[in-house]
Amino acid sequence: MDVTVLMENSTPSSRLAARHGLSLWLELADGGRVLFDMGPDEAFLANARVLGVDATSADLAVLSHGHYDHGGGLPAFLAACAATGRNVPVYVREHAFEKHVSGTVAHHHDIGLDLALASDPRVHVVREKRDLGGGVMLFSTARRAHPTARSNARLLMRGADGGLVPDAFAHEQSLLVDDDGRRILVSGCSHGGILNLMDAAEELLGSPLDAVVAGFHLMDPSGGTVEDAEATRALARELAARPARYFTFHCTGTDAFALLRDGLGERVRYLHVGSCATI
After folding, report:
1. I need a labelling partner for 107 at 20 to 30 A (CA). Which of 14, 26, 136, 193 fits?
2. Cα–Cα distance between 14 and 16 in angstroms, integer?
3. Residue 100, SS3 per DSSP
4. For the segment 248-279, what is each residue's pLDDT rounded down to a tens digit?
5. Nearest to 138 by CA among 175, 190, 170, 169
6. Hey, which residues does 33 pair with through a beta bridge?
7. How many helices, marked H, and strands, marked E, lie in the chain?
8. What is the pTM of this model?
9. Using one digit for the tens of pLDDT, what is the confidence trace for 85-126?
10. Cα(228)–Cα(135) distance, rounded to whole angstroms?
11. Of 24, 117, 103, the residue nearest 64 (C-alpha)
């Protein structure tokens, strides 16, 4: 599988735009094309054109969860597809279009998706799992055997009683790809904890993962916090004990990445806007 980063927090190129968010272009060995997340706005489409990628040629698109920095570009993508006569299905997890906010109960701001798109016929709701064909599967998990990052504490959702409650991330989903015998996990922010997602993926596969392409949510830019250094080192040790290679970006943060690199060496790589990786 080839991965091209269409949107991420940083880029070494003056020709590409960087935003706080994520968008990945996945090309499978059998020719399948998947758009995974769409950044906070339409800028991922401009980056795609610079990189020679026609995002509207995707066979399918996935939103990893209901936060604007991953799905704010959805209206622009649907408009671009309509302009070219393409009807690309977009898969979202149930609860993705519910109210999502970041901050505290006293001071918070909306980080959700455009609610008007929830009823768009091109948007398809996934519950726990869906086989999309071609060795591609969407799945979610509620398991929390391993701790999740403390930065999750600033992400809240509106409860049924009209108040604010901690987000359990029932709107998060991940992609599991069996690409010519290589088993790859793709996740946006891994709010449920990357180790929990890996456990669930390996249970579905019945074998270890070969690669993980994911943000680990080890920093919170709006709160100005990063994960405790020892917790990050402990995560690096857990990841090193597994055979996978790791490709990360966005919410991992460069400070945490430096610690992961200390523990994982060449087995972990940070991807910026415009980065390409063959897995």
Report:
1. 193
2. 6
3. strand
4. 999 999 999 999 999 999 999 999 999 999 99
5. 175
6. 27
7. 6, 20
8. 0.97
9. 999 999 999 999 999 999 888 888 999 999 999 999 999 999
10. 37
11. 24
User: What tokens appear for 150 in the block?
Assistant: 């403390």
What number of CA atoms fall less than 13 Å from residue 261's CA on the CB side? Answer: 12
Contacts of 78 (CB under 8 A, 6+ apart): 90, 117, 120, 122
**Pairing verdict, β 245-248 and 268-270:** parallel
CA angle 220, 46, 247 (to 5 degrees): 45
- For the chain, state the CA radius of gyration: 17
CB-based burial label for 12 (10 Å; 0-12, 13-18, 19+)? exposed
Q: 159 — phi, psi (to 5°)? A: -85, 175
- Helix (H/G/I), strand (E/B), else coil: 43: helix
Whether 169 contacts 192, CB under 8 Å: yes
Query: Cβ(108)–Cβ(100) under 8 Å?
Result: no
Encoded amino acid at 177, one letter: V
